[in-house]
Amino acid sequence: MKVEVVKPQDLGASERALWADLRAGNAELANPYFTTGWSDVIARQRGDARVAVISDGAEVVGFLPYQCASRVALLPMGGALSDYQGFICAEGAEMDADEVVAQIGAGRFDFTHALTSQKSFGEAQRAVSSSWIACLGEGFDAYAAAKRAAGSSVLKRIRSKRRRMERALGDLRFTAFSTEQADLDALIDWKRQQFERTNRPDVFAESWTRAVVNESFNAKDDDYQGVLFTLHAGDRLAAANFCLRSNQVLHCWFIAHDDEFHEQSPGLVLFGDILQSMESFGAKQLDLGAGDYRFKSELATRAREVGAGFVGKPGLSTSLRSMQYAIRNAFERLPLGRVSAWPGKAMRRFDLMRGLAEHRSDSH
Hints:
This protein is α+β, with helices and mostly antiparallel strands. The protein contains eleven helices and 13 strands.
C-alpha cells in the first residue's frame, strides 16, 4: 500500500471521478460529508485540509479526508462540523488504517462519528452511538403508513401541534430551499444563544465555521449544497433547519427556533413539513444525525451506528489517547451518577475545541 497526501483542491479529474464512482457503489457513503464538495469547502477555509490518496500497487483504491489537529494527531475533514467520517472506498473494502496514518506521518487519527460498517476501524472504536435516518424511498404516504403500522403516533402529534400553532399564531408559511440570508443569520444567532445557555463551545465563534456554512448555503452543485428550510408565523421566522444535501440525501445540520414560540414546538412542526416536501425535490433520505433525542428516534425508520476512537501504530501518541479512554470507560462503569459521565464529557469538549481551532501552518 502507498499513501500520497494532497490538498483537496489538487485532486486530479481522474481521482475525483474515482471518488464519485466509489460513493456511487457504496450506499454507506451517500451522505454529503463523504463528497468532494465537503472537502473542497473545508479546504477553502482551512489551510490544513488534506486527502490521503491510497493506492494498491498502481491502482488508487481509496481516500481518507482529514485535517491536522497538531503535529501528531489528525482529525476528520471539518473536525467539529463533521457528523460522518471514514474512508472513501468500495463497499466491504478493508484499509490498513494504522499504516495509512503512519505513511501520512502522524501518530494517530482521532474520529468521533466513523462508520462502524467500515472494518478498517475495527477494534479502534471505543464508543458507539446511533445516527437516526428517516427513509422515504417510496414517498411520504408510504413512510407515514409504515410509522402508523409500527405503532408510532409522531406524525399525528406533529399535525396536532401545527393546528394548535395556527390557532395561536395565524397562518404558517413553510419555505423549502429558502434563499433568505437573513433567515440563515437568525438561525446562527439562535444556535449561538443556545450554546451559551447550555455552556457548550460556540461552534460559530471561529470565522472559518461561519464561512463554511455560508459557502455551503450558496453552493449550487446537486452533489453538495446547503439547503435552508424555514417556518414563518405571519411575517415572523419561527424555526429554521439548515441541511446539507447530496443528491437524494438530506442531512440535518443546524436547527433552532425563536424561543418565544417554544411552547408550540415549531422545530418539530418544521420537520413535518420537510418530510412532506422531500418527494417534490427527489430526496429519499432524511438523516437526523446522532444524538439521544426522542424526536430523532421517533421520526427515524432505521439507525446507523457510528463510533468514536482512534487509529495509529503503537507509540506515545496512541498510548496517551488509550489512557484517556481507559479513564473514561472506568468512570462510566462506576455508580457515581452524573460524575461517571464527566471524563467522557471532558473528552468530547476537548475534541470539539480541537476541531474548531484555527488551522495550523505546519500541516501534514
